[in-house]
Task: inverse folding
């Protein structure tokens, strides 16, 4: 196993606990979940009961009161076992619940956030639309006021946990405003709301991603999370910036797994009378991969330290960590795939799954290109 050094006693112990949980509860489910393309939903409650959902939220809202680094260690270890399952748990740990935490009233926190952190209420987060991905401002979903109610119309796509969710934290434009956005909770069973379909994907097949339709869904004011007059788009999206380090940690977990399975294979597979790892062409792949993984580890946890130390979110560093770790995952898995030769091309090999899953990181929470734009604009370009 690749060793990256200590993060301190508490986080090292947490890593061991997370590793044991992932070995026991994720590894045993991943093959079936991947082939059925179905998230093992009992893991929400199991993870919740172990304090693995919302470890980074304050204790007074039902969280674990830990720092972001603790949540990253959990995400990294879960992704080492399965990016799909880690993604399903991760979207519960951060995005939907982040909106409840950021904007929720005490009543809304009691009603939805506490059960969500216990894994008893699955909350997805819906921003992306068929015609508005990176360019979020193009979103057409809207909420209009009718008397005391809000009426929500629109379509959201690529929504992780959408097919399973008890509730959706949906971001919409407020009708009759020039540029105000609102976050509402829509519940499964609300008339006019449905998950129209579960989308087939190239990877992360043990997570479920859906397309959601909102056709005049009427909700009361108790469902609005954001302030009455709405928020700026920047304020709404700000919640997502912290999530980039969690994605970086997840990418790191996949890169470590790819390295470990590649190393094991390189030691036992023989060609021309010796283990293939003894050929310089193969051993150099491990030299490069281990260096990139170490650098990704350092940038990712350094950014966690900034997030824990500073009151303002380090936008530049979060983007750099996400960019570097996701590109590292893609590079490492590509190099390790080569180590396996034909065996890596077969569906029976773990590296084949990792190869497909790695692309996830270059898209979610802002694509690679969007991270390039954020970073270069912070550099003054
Ligand atoms: C598995 C998976 C799970 C997801 N889960 C969720 C979820 O739970 N909730 C949710 O709301 N969304 C979710 N998403 C959506 C994800 O956030 C979007 O896919 C992502 O933001 C990119 O948007 P897009 O797919 O519309 O691509 P587009 O925005 O159409 O981009 C297409 C290409 O153009 C590039 N591009 C776009 N604008 C620029 C620019 N200004 N400069 C340079 N290049 C640019 C992009 O980088 C990309 O290469 C998920 C996506 C996937 C794949």
Result:
């Amino acid at each position: 196993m690749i060793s990256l050094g200590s993060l301190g006693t508490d986080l090292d112990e947490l890593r061991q606990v997370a590793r044991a949980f992932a070995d026991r509860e994720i590894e045993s489910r991943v093959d079936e979940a991947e082939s059925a393309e179905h998230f093992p939903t009992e893991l929400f409650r199991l993870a919740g009961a172990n304090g693995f959902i919302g470890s980074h939220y304050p204790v007074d809202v039902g969280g674990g009161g830990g720092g972001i680094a603790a949540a990253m260690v959990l995400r990294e270890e879960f992704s080492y076992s399965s990016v799909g399952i880690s993604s399903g748990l991760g979207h519960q740990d951060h995005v939907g619940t982040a909106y409840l935490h950021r904007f929720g009233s005490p009543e809304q926190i009691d009603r939805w956030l506490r059960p969500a952190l216990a894994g008893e209420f699955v909350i997805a987060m819906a921003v992306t639309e068929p015609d508005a991905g990176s360019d979020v401002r193009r979103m057409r979903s809207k909420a209009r006021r009718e008397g005391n109610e809000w009426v929500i119309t629109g379509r959201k796509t690529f929504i992780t946990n959408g097919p399973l969710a008890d509730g959706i934290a949906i971001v919409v434009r407020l009708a009759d405003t020039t540029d105000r956005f609102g976050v509402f909770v829509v519940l499964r069973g609300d008339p006019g709301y449905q998950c129209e379909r579960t989308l087939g994907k190239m990877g992360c097949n043990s997570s479920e991603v859906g397309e959601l339709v909102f056709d005049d869904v009427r909700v009361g004011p108790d469902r609005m999370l954001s302030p009455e007059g709405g928020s700026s788009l920047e304020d709404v999206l700000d919640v997502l910036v912290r999530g980039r380090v969690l994605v970086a940690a997840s990418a790191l977990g996949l890169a470590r797994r790819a390295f470990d399975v590649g190393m094991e294979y390189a030691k036992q597979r023989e060609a021309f009378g010796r283990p293939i790892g003894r050929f310089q062409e193969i051993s150099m792949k491990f030299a490069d991969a281990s260096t990139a993984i170490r650098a990704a580890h350092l940038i990712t946890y350094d950014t966690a330290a900034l997030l824990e130390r500073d009151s303002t979110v380090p936008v530049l560093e979060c983007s750099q960590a996400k960019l570097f770790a996701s590109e590292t995952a893609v590079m490492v898995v590509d190099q390790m795939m080569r180590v396996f030769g034909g065996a890596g091309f077969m569906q029976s090999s773990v590296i084949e799954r990792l190869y497909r899953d790695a692309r996830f990181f270059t898209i979610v929470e802002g694509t690679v290109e969007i991270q390039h734009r954020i970073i270069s604009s912070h550099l003054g370009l």
About this structure: The domain at 124-231 is CATH 2.40.110.10 (Butyryl-CoA Dehydrogenase, subunit A; domain 2). Residues 91, 124-128, 133-135, 158-160, 201, 204, 209, 360, 363-364, 367, 369-370, 373 surround flavin-adenine dinucleotide (CB under 6 Å). The chain has three domains: 9-122, 124-231, 237-378. The beta strands are 123-126, 142-146, 149-160, 167-174, 181-187, 193-198, 209-219, 270-271, 274-275.
